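Input record (one chain):
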Amino acid sequence: MTYSQEKSGEQPNTYFVQDRSNEQELERLRIQDKMVTAGMGGVLPEQSDPARFHRVLDVGCGTGGWLIEMAQTYPNLKRLVGVGISKNMLDYARGQAVELQLGERVEFQVMDALRMLEFPNASFDLLNQRFGMSYLRTWEWPKLLSEFRRVLRPGGIARLTEGDIMIESSSSASLKLAQLLQQAFYQSGHFFTPEPDGVSSQLVRLLSQYGFKDVQMQVYELHYRAETPEGRDFIEDAKRGSRTLAPFIRKWVGVVEDYEELYQQMLVEIQQADFVATLKLLSAWGTKM
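The corresponding structure, as predicted from the sequence alone:
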């Protein structure tokens, strides 16, 4: 166990950044949360009647941004619970909920979803998971989806959102770093295929195969341009992510001799006035019958 894990009380798990006391990673997740929700058009853009969900569970909730925005957007929600493995991130999320006077409706619990979701059967109307690829390996999906079915009530919805590794960018260095991350995801067992959509392409199949009905999907393309608020968030996410994910890439791809050179090149390229990038996300959802 590293010193940082001893100090923070964090335990090693399969999340791709082992040092979850890292403030850079916390800030990256906070920025990414806001950036992705806004780019998708809100917390539940593809759901025709979000008001019917009264009890919501967010698995792997990170810094809590999605769940807190759910509470703000839908005041009718009775219970909103976020679970994650990192005490550091959940302490931050809990503080945000209290500051926004949502503490009575929103709660955060330290919980390892890969072991068990510690809730009674049929506890929730909606179960949300976003970017599970950051901690889930391919062989862990069946058990987790079984847990999703168990804690959902009949008629409840399981909603999964995953992203492709960057599909377009005017920064050649960004694309090279993304390719290294893609390779690391596949080598570590987080991706089903070595392609950029190594998880997102499997979501419909996974939900259908493991017992959900009426499975549907929605694809989102998020565009980022320099000198826009969204573009600035993207740049901050990229700057932090390329640092905090470097040990994960080194572990699974090997030492990349020119990594620092690529990182510095990326910093220059993504801050150019003509910088553009496109990300693709896919949400899939199914019903527990």
